[in-house]
Amino acid sequence: MKILITGGTVFLSKITAEYYISRGHDVYVLNRNTKPQPQNANLIQADRHALGNSLRGCNFDVVIDVTAYNADDVNELVSAMGDFGCYILISSSAVYPDTEKQPFTEETPIGKNNYWGDYGLGKISAENATLRLSDCYIIRPPYIYGEYNNIYREAFVFDCAVADRPFFIPNMGNLTLQFIHAEDVCRFTEILINVKPTQRIFNLGTMPISAKEWVTTCYSSANKSPTFVYTDKTIEQRNYFPFYDYRYALDHSAADKLMPSVIVLENGLKRAYAQYIIDSSYVNRKDYFKYIDENLKPTYKYK
User: Fold this and answer.
1) For residue 297, what pLDDT is reported?
2) Residue 303 — very low, low, confident or very high, per pLDDT cuts 50/70/90?
3) 154: Cβ–Cβ under 8 A, 6 or more apart, which residues?
4) What are residue 138's DSSP bridge partners?
5) CB–CB of 106/80 below 8 Å?
6) Distance between CA 59 and CA 61 in Å, rounded?
7) How far apart are CA 242 and CA 249, in angstroms?
8) Contact (Cβ atoms closer than 8 angstroms) between residue 55 and residue 81
């Protein structure tokens, strides 16, 4: 197939491009060419917010839109292309309001989520634009993890483990989190292309896990065991911890029928750690350590 992937150089879009290239497809990536390109990808160099004539006359069997954040992103891309077949939008679980009953199903009404704000509203508008297309699918994942994750989540815990630092964790580590490996997102897009199910929107995910279990598994990937320091609930956890204090769960039973097995979290984190050890320059690190050292260490005693 001839496949267009938006992005192609960062985390999920990079892994998606490499996934389809490895399967022998003719893969085109749309980006500004500011980072190394996937090997054997066909580059269309353009800013998706200023496409001009970069896609004029280009036809694709499949479009996998990893980088759309609002309706304009979708509409401008569609208008700039020639003919195309299936359009797959990678959306987000942020489209579900935090006030709705959980676990969220694909039938749960979407709307503003007070934790995700404009990001979630933008994804809703991108979904609405996508659903106007005749051949389309929308994927709503929870937190995506895996090799090349540029968001400072598992890499933060790996940094702590490698440095033998104690781990400061909020709410006794009881916050529940839900993940899906980036490769499983790719696998599911391939299933949609091949199976062509009548359902158009799918949640993805694995079983929820506590933050404490997640951190422990990250440390285990480095053959380490964490020493936990439990912090006070009054401290803003986003200053030193990579997740909001927001518990949610997705019902992903419809996707499970199409993709019964997914990468086990322990194995996926080991793969992510192996890549991190080779090179972690792709990670956008935050000043968690500075905040911890200046604000938490003087207050919390640990051995």
Assistant:
1) 87
2) very low
3) 145, 218, 269, 272, 273, 276
4) 89, 201
5) no
6) 7
7) 18
8) yes
